[in-house]
Each structure stands twice: as structure tokens, then as C-alpha cells.
Specification:
Layout lengths: L4 E4 L36 H6 L23 E5 L5 H10 L3 E5 L7 H5 L3 E2 L3 H7 L2 E4 L4 H9 L13 E4 L5 H13 L3 E4 L2 E2 L2 H6 L2 E7 L1 H14 E6 L5 H29 L4 H10 L5 H11 L9 H17 L5 H15 L19
Parallel strand pairs: 2-3, 2-5, 3-4, 5-6, 6-7, 9-10
Antiparallel strand pairs: 1-10, 7-9, 8-9
Helix pairs in contact: 5-6, 9-10, 9-11, 9-12, 9-13, 10-11, 12-13
Bound molecules: NADPH dihydro-nicotinamide-adenine-dinucleotide phosphate and ligand LL5AMS7Z.
């Protein structure tokens, strides 16, 4: 069985200078722990007072630790969509030296205005940075941006690291990992759980796997963008964990949608259903957050429906690979496919309720 590590950040946000010349180095050692042992990250006040790390721009990966520390290198960010933009923004706000690239260049403007540098290709970003993050839509775009013409691989090499935070399947992640590692660089898959708001608030959950030393190095950056991080061992385990989580989420949303419509059909107020659900054992932040707007037929996009359907499709592939029946997820997948065919791809995944409406 692999080794697993999860660390949570304290309730207070990291100081804004976590990446800057006034970076605070928190003394700790990296020690993977067995699964289900989730220590909370504690700061040692005396080390806060006594260990101010000097700023240095290094072409080598730093020796930052998994439980704290600072990252003083150059950070690349590829993919500035709903998730990538706030994640990169949080790094900039924390004082990191960030270089961005996005297929649609105009989406870089906000980041450049906030202090980011720009490079014209993923290869140029990777060659000018110590660590490069990628937050892309799906397996195809993740492979293209890593391994395609002018892909990040062309700019990678010994002393660098590539962190793919996109939601993809394990086979895709392994193939990107192999291409990156052939250059002598390190690879970490780190898909995130948590949507637009958690990304804005630096409250994501990172599900990482791959090179443990890269995990350790980028931990201060993950701490800026997220509230906790799990190290799950071999490449593929992070992807699998993310797909299982999103398989559950997709089915939950489909079931909730059925409940909303059924309650209305039998003469109940669906808003009251949302309230009842919120007080019981099946309460979930997702239902309370999205329920009221679903009742109004509004689906402001946080997690695009097309990405939820992609995750269900990939989860079905994962289940197939181990002959595990997942009939609920298979049924939910059909519903998301129907919603896509009715034009709801780019709306929030809660628009799946529309696929159940008889008048469609
Ligand atoms: N939104 C959410 O709540 C969450 C999303 N995720 C996952 O994170 C990833 C990104 O999601 P999100 O930010 O919402 O998605 P968006 O659709 O908002 O952004 C997708 C990004 O991928 C880029 N992209 C898409 N296709 C290509 C391509 N062929 N070549 C180059 N770039 C491409 C887009 O570039 P361009 O701007 O040019 O279109 C954009 O930067 C997905 O894997 C998603 O499943 C994970 C957790 C939560
Ligand atoms: O992948 C989506 C999420 O909310 O997590």
C-alpha cells in the first residue's frame, strides 16, 4: 500500500509575504504518514520570530518543506479559466514571481495588470520558470499544452518542476509525467476539489501524487491556493481520487435535481425542501449554495456542466478498468449528456436539472 499524507492549513490565511523577500521559513520536516492520519498544520511561534528567509531567485527548486516554508523561485501558470485565474491571482497577491500564458491571450490581462509577467508559449513559460502549474480544461488540452508544439516539455529540464492541477484521467497524467520526466524535470499531479469561490478564497483541496520532493517544494504555493493537501503516492492516485469525488458530486447533484422537481410537482415548495435538506443528515454546502438559484432556473457558472460530464465519463472509464459497477454514476452521466445536448454545457453543472424538465 502506498504512503499518504494530508496537511491542512490553519484557519487564518497565510501572510501576504509568504512568497516574498520577507518570506517566513517555518521549520519542519517532510514525513509521509499513513492514509487517514491527517495532522493539522501548526505554526511554531518561536520559528516565526527567528527564521526570516532571504529572498533569492533560484533556477533550482528550493528546499521548502511540506508543512510550511516559502518558495522563492519563479512560478509559471498555464490556463487562466474560471479556476486558473483566481489561483494565479492568489500567488501574485502573496508576492510570488508569476509568469502566465493562456490560449486566449486577453485573459492574461487581468493578471498582467496585477504584476504577472507574460510569455508567448507554454515552452517559454516553462523555460523561464522554476515550477510551472497547468490548469486546463480536459485530458486533450492538458496533453497539448504539456507535450504539443511549443508545449511546456520543450522548456523543462533538470531542476524544474511541472504541476498539473487539471482534472484528467490517470493514463493522461502518467503520459504527461513520462514526457516531463524524460527532460530530467519533476512531475506532480495535483487536481483540486473546490470550485470558483474556494479558488478565489485560497480554500482549495489539493489531491497530489508523483514526485514527493516536488510536493515538498511546492507545498508553500499549495498552501497559498488551498486549505489542505493530500499526498497520495504514485501518479494516477491523485487523478483517481478526484474522479471518485466528482463522480459522487455529479450523482448527488442529479439526485438533488430530481428531488427539487418532484417536490414541486406534488405541490411542495422546493425552497422549503432546500431548507429541510440543509438541516438533516444529507445536508451539503452544495445543496444550500445552489438550491435557491436552481429553483429560480438560474445557473451562474462556477463549475461548467461540460466539465462535470467529462469527469463522469472519466470516472466510468476508471470503474471499467477495475470492473467496478457504478450504475448510479452511469445514469447521472446520461443526464449530463442530455443537458449538454440541450445547450447547457457552459452553464453551471446544477443546470442538469433542466434535463429533467418535461418541456425540454
Ligand atoms: N470550475 C470548477 O469549479 C472546477 C474545475 N476543475 C477542473 O479544472 C480544470 C479547469 O476548469 P475551469 O477553470 O473551470 O475551466 P474553464 O473552461 O474556465 O478553463 C479552461 C482552460 O483551459 C484552456 N483550454 C481549453 N482547451 C484548450 C486547448 N485546446 N488548448 C489550450 N488551452 C485550452 C482554456 O483556454 P481559453 O481561455 O483559451 O479557452 C482555459 O484556460 C478542468 O479540468 C475542471 O474539470 C476542478 C475543480 C473545480
Ligand atoms: O470539480 C469541481 C469541484 O467543485 O471540485
Amino acid at each position: 500500500m502506498g504512503r499518504f499524507l494530508s496537511l491542512s492549513k490553519p484557519s487564518t490565511k497565510l501572510p501576504l509575504y509568504a512568497c516574498s523577500s520577507m518570506a517566513v521559513a517555518l521549520t519542519s520536516t517532510f514525513s509521509p504518514r499513513p492514509f487517514f492520519q491527517f495532522p493539522r498544520f501548526k505554526r511554531n511561534p518561536s520559528s516565526l520570530l527567528n527564521s526570516i528567509a532571504p529572498f533569492s531567485v533560484s533556477s533550482q527548486l528550493s528546499n521548502a518543506t511540506a508543512e510550511g516554508g516559502s518558495f522563492s523561485g519563479r512560478v509559471g501558470f498555464l490556463g487562466l479559466g474560471i479556476m486558473g485565474t483566481p489561483m494565479a491571482l492568489n500567488l501574485i497577491k502573496a508576492g510570488c514571481d508569476v509568469t502566465v500564458w493562456n490560449r486566449t491571450k486577453s485573459k492574461c490581462d487581468q493578471l498582467i495588470n496585477q504584476g504577472a509577467k507574460y510569455q508567448a508559449s507554454p515552452a517559454d513559460v516553462a523555460s523561464s520558470c522554476d515550477v510551472t502549474f497547468a490548469m486546463l480544461a480536459d485530458p486533450q488540452s492538458a496533453v497539448d499544452i504539456a507535450c504539443g508544439v511549443n508545449g511546456a516539455v520543450k522548456g523543462m529540464g533538470p531542476g524544474k518542476g511541472y504541476v498539473d492541477v487539471s482534472t484528467v484521467d490517470g493514463a493522461t497524467s502518467k503520459s504527461i509525467s513520462e514526457s516531463i520526466k524524460e527532460t530530467g524535470a519533476l512531475f506532480l499531479e495535483a487536481p483540486v476539489s473546490g470550485s470558483k469561490k474556494p479558488a478565489e478564497d485560497g480554500q482549495l483541496i489539493f489531491l497530489t501524487a508523483g514526485d514527493a520532493s516536488l510536493y515538498e517544494t511546492v507545498a508553500p504555493l499549495l498552501n497559498i491556493m488551498g486549505k489542505s493537501k493530500f499526498y497520495l503516492g504514485e501518479v494516477g492516485n491523485g487523478a483517481a481520487m478526484k474522479l471518485v469525488v466528482n463522480m459522487i458530486m455529479g450523482s448527488m447533484m442529479a439526485s438533488f435535481s430530481e428531488g427539487l422537481l418532484l417536490s414541486e410537482k406534488v405541490g411542495l415548495d422546493p425552497n422549503v425542501l432546500v431548507e429541510v435538506v440543509s438541516q438533516g443528515a444529507i445536508s451539503a454546502p452544495m445543496f444550500s449554495l445552489k438550491g435557491p438559484s436552481m429553483v429560480q432556473g438560474k445557473y451562474p457558472t462556477a463549475f461548467p456542466l461540460k466539465h462535470q460530464q467529462k469527469d463522469l465519463r472519466l470516472a466510468l472509464g476508471l470503474a471499467e478498468s477495475v470492473s467496478q459497477p457504478i450504475p448510479m454514476a452511469a445514469a447521472a452521466n446520461e443526464l449530463y449528456k442530455a443537458a449538454k445536448s440541450h445547450g447547457f454545457s457552459d452553464q453551471d453543472f446544477s443546470a442538469v436539472v433542466e434535463a429533467l424538465k418535461a418541456n425540454l
